Structure formats: structure tokens, C-alpha cells
Amino acid sequence: VLQKWVNREISNFDYLIQLNTMAGRTYNDLAQYPVFPWILRDYTSEELDLNNPAVFRDLSKPIGVVNEKNAKAVKEKYENFEDPLGIIDKFHYGTHYSNAAGVMHYLIRVEPFTTLHIQLQSGRFDCADRQFHSIPATWQALMDNPNDVKELIPEFFYFPEFLENQNGFNLGQLQISKEVVNDVVLPKWAHSPEDFIYKHRKALESEYVSAHLHEWIDLIFGYKQRGPAAVEALNVFY
């Protein structure tokens, strides 16, 4: 598979799906759901210019420290952590880049994930402000908060329906703006959910991502998952 990918006989999307499968990740287990990277950082421009390296996320860094500002806090947390019982090892992040709640968070508008989300929240929808309501706002929250380290799920690259509230669920309204949560708010450069998926998939297969995807793979599936390489890369999870 690696050789096929290097020879460009399979797409970046296919390669990531294969890696997820080999790593034991599967659509059948929300706790081991396939994980995909955030690949863009520009969610505000009117047009998306895939020839400009500045629109892409730095794939060599864990999502928690893509924003330089967070790196210092994350490092200090690791260095100052001491478990009095000596059971828990030091870590940079207390949460994970992929978990069941995160999958339900992204797929809240689509069954069976809606029902699973409601069960998780003791029989009701979580408060609107904590829901997945906007792609630009989700990215901004990641940049502002080193404790939020969710990567993406494969649906971001092929499944426009999860961005629409086709079932008309009452997801509440945001506290400050009083905006009703309905369809997911898209970046300015996307004119519809289909357009978002088309451009996002194009970004995944772009020259820039093809040249840098291995850096993210090292963090998630490769040698930077544990040991000294993980510590150096600020990539140690609880």
C-alpha cells in the first residue's frame, strides 16, 4: 500500500482509509473510528487558493499545538505533571484526537448518531453552544484552546449530508448571538455542503498535502506516537 501511495497509484484519501483499517480502526466502533487530519487553516477567505501553502495546516504538529501560542502551555503541563501515586505517566493532552463523543459531535444531525448523542447526554441534546454548528468556529476553538484536540472524521471528505439538518432537529440556540443552530455554518469559500466537500477533498489530494501527509501519519500511526519522539513532538496523550 505504501509503495502504491508513493507511486501515486492510490489517492491520499484511499491511503488514509487503508492505514486506519490496518491500525484496527473501523466504522463499526465509535471508540476506534477512522481518524483524518484537519488539512486547512483558511476558513475565512472568499476564495480558497490551493496553490498557496499558507492556507494549509502544519501537518508536522499535533492539532493542539498548530497554534504556536499553545505550545508553551502544553509543554509546561507535561513537565510539571506529577502523579503522587506514580501510576499515571506524564502527558501533553488529557483528551484524545479521536473518541466516541467526538464522532457523535460531528455527526449529530444524522441517525443513528443523533440518538446516540441524546443517550450520551441523558436523554436530551447538549446545550447549543457546545454543539458542532460552524466549521470556521470549530477551527477557531481548536486554535484558542490547547485542550481541544479533535481531528476530523472521513465524512468531511465525502458526505455533504452530515452538514445539513435534513431531519429538522431542534438543536437550540447560541447563548450570546441567539442564533438558532440548524445546518452547519460553512467557510465563506464554500457555497453549499456539496461545494465544501468537493473543495475539501481537492485540498486533501493537493500537491502540498501529498508532500506533507507523512508528517501527520508519523504522529498518529507512526514512530512519534510514544517514547522520546512523542515527547519531543508534544504528542503524548493521557
Automatic annotation (TrEMBL):
Keyword Repeat: yes
Keyword annotations of the record: Repeat, WD repeat
GO BP annotation list: intracellular protein localization
Entry-linked Pfam families: Beach
InterPro entries: BEACH_dom, BEACH_dom_sf, BEACH_Domain
An example Gene Ontology molecular-function term: protein kinase binding
Matches recorded under Gene3D superfamilies: BEACH domain
Domain of life: Eukaryota
SMART domains: Beach
BEACH domain location: 1-238
Keyword Signal belongs to the record: no
Record-level GO cellular component terms: cytosol; membrane
Protein name: NBEL1 protein
Source organism of this protein record: Anhinga rufa
